[in-house]
Amino acid sequence: MKDASFEVLRRFRLTTLFANPGSTEVSLLAGLPSDVDFVLGLHEASVIGMATGYALRTDRPALALLHTTAGLGNAVGALATARANRAPLVVVVGQQDRRHLATEPFLAGRLHGLAGDYPVWEHQPERPQDVPGALARAWHEARDGRGPALVIVPMDDWDAEADPDALIAPSTLHQGRRVDDVALAEVAALLEGATSPVVVAGAGNDSPAGWAALTELAERLDCPVWQEAFGARAGFPQDHWLFAGHLPASRSGLRKVLSGHDVVLTVGAPAFRQYPYESGAFVEPGTRIAVITDDPEEAHRSPAEVAVLGDPAETVERLARRLSRFLGPVREAIERPRPPLPGPGEPLRAKHVLDALAQRLPHDTVLLEETPSSRPDLHALVPARAPLGFLSAAMGGLGFALPAAIGVRLAGPDRPVVAVLGDGASLYSIQALWSARHYGVGALFVVLANGRYAIMDRLSEQAGAAAPAWPPFTEVSVTALARGFGCPADRVDDLPGLLAALDAVLPTLAERQEPLLLEVVVEPDAHYRA
Fold it and tell me: DSSP letters of 303-320?
């Protein structure tokens, strides 16, 4: 059965295996074929995080292996992030020998439903002979559902005799969804009749074709383009002259920035993503909303006049050709204001680090963000200038950026990869640095170290607390932890040291074959803005 399963994995290009092995997986892993690359993660959250980054970079399912209840339980948060980030994963979960599962032996797992609703598909084959077919189906379920598909495999199944007639899944599945002309005409009429249209770009439009199509549409409309609030990816070039910024995450803020626009077209995002609850409508009375997305859930929950379900890039390209408006004038992008440099003896702040990065990052850098208190400054100072130029955890859970950066770089060593993390966020998956060092992953990890959960401190302050209920953790040295995992690391606490470190490492990122963690001591900001 093992040989037949590996043939299926080869057919679907699932030959990079992210795993933290356990005894229920030994029969699969013993004698692993030489054409299967094993990538070890030291914790299951890191395993799924690396696989998620790999899947997002390649835009096809990645393969992960988890160890029964403990492994799947440790990975649930990362699986939820993978689902929210629409990362297709085939996840094999080990189980005890099926011949005595009825007696619940040691390591028997009650695995069904353990990951909740986050898997797009979950299945334990009825017979060992059905395992290869389940793996093939999982690939299709992951790709089409844009999330993790779980296959639970008892440990004795791998040694069973194969059934050559048992593969129940297509070898190739062609998709043919295309938006019809009637739907396109309805959206085109909305835009043609608008006196002041506006576009909102979302994570679902983050592809070279998506950026090109939406750029043409926006230039034809000569209208501003906003990025969705808390978007995990950039849906439009953020150095373009029509880019207006990131939408506020509150209804009052949303109404304010969209007031004066009579039609809002959202592409690759729902209408609208928010964070703090506020009463009232999303938009002012009379404003009409249209949505284009390939995610049925986004379309179904959007209070839009018309929602179109289809590939955003292809749909917007056809929509742009329907408009009678001509391209607007070419203009220079608005120059982003830079923060003043710290004076002598003044501490570094996150904005100083981000500004220094923005001035030096290569155009095609993949930047992964996990610094909640500094995210507004990052958005203001570091634009995404190429598709896949920005990645973050779509559901806000910490522990994503560090391992995901490793997966992104493993899948695409042709692009520089930089992860910007808070020191608190870095601790959720710090052990992934061992994988980065062991597999020669040339990524840069910039850790903004303020010795506390700054975002939580500010939210506690806003809630009226005189002081947070939790202590700071200024004793923690992320540099020492990184070195303990074998990862090269440096620590800087002033502007000359920061600039010297960045000037030394950033020009080498494209060819670099070892990671570097740069811990930058920063003063926590006094205020937080969502």
Answer: --SEEEES-HHHHHHHHH
Positions of the chain with pLDDT lower than 70, given as ranges: 167, 174, 176, 325-328, 526-530
Whole-number Å distance between alpha carbons of 107 and 154: 11
Contact call for residues 357 and 226 (beta carbons, < 8 A): no
Three-class SS state of 200:
strand
d(Cα 199, Cα 269) in Å, to the nearest integer?
Answer: 11
Rg (CA), the chain: 24
- The DSSP H or E segment spanning 246 is strand 243-246
Ranges assigned E (strand) in 378-507: 390-392, 417-422, 444-449, 489-492
Antiparallel, parallel or unpaired: β 121-123 and 89-95: unpaired
Phi, psi of 137 (to 5 degrees): -65, -40
Q: In whole angstroms, give the CA distance from residue 394 to residue 370.
A: 11
pLDDT 10s digits, 144-171: 999 999 999 998 888 888 887 776 777 7
Which among 413, 398, 409, 408 has a CA at the least distance from the CA of 447? 398
- The 10 Å Cβ neighbour count of residue 241 is 16
- Closest to 61 in 3D by CA, of 407, 346, 385: 407
Please count the other Cβ atoms lying within 10 Å of the Cβ belonging to residue 507: 13
Given a contact cutoff of 8 angstroms between Cβ atoms, the answer to whether 48 and 17 are in contact is no
Residue with tokens 């302050």: 461
Among 311, 325, 308, 268, residue whose Cα is nearest residue 184: 308
Specify which residues 246 forms β-bridges with: 227
* DSSP-based helix, strand, coil % in the chain, nearest 5: 40, 15, 45
Q: Which of 261, 257, 265 is nearest to 196 (CA)?
A: 261
Q: Which of 62, 66, 69 is nearest to 28 (CA)?
A: 66
Q: pLDDT tens digits, residue range 471-519?
A: 888 899 999 999 999 999 999 999 999 999 999 999 999 999 999 999 9
Q: Which of 247, 302, 255 is nearest to 283 (CA)?
A: 255
The total number of residues shown for the chain amounts to 530
Strand partners, 390: 367
CA distance 262 to 255: 12
Residue 403 near residue 50 (C-beta atoms within 8 A) = yes
Residue for token digits 């093939």? Answer: 136
Q: How far apart are CA 326 and CA 255, in angstroms?
A: 29
376 vs 29, 367, 373, CA distance in Å? 45, 15, 8
- How do beta strands 390-392 and 197-201 pair? unpaired
Assigned token pair, 237: 């070039």
Distance between CA atoms of residues 33 and 42, nearest Å: 22
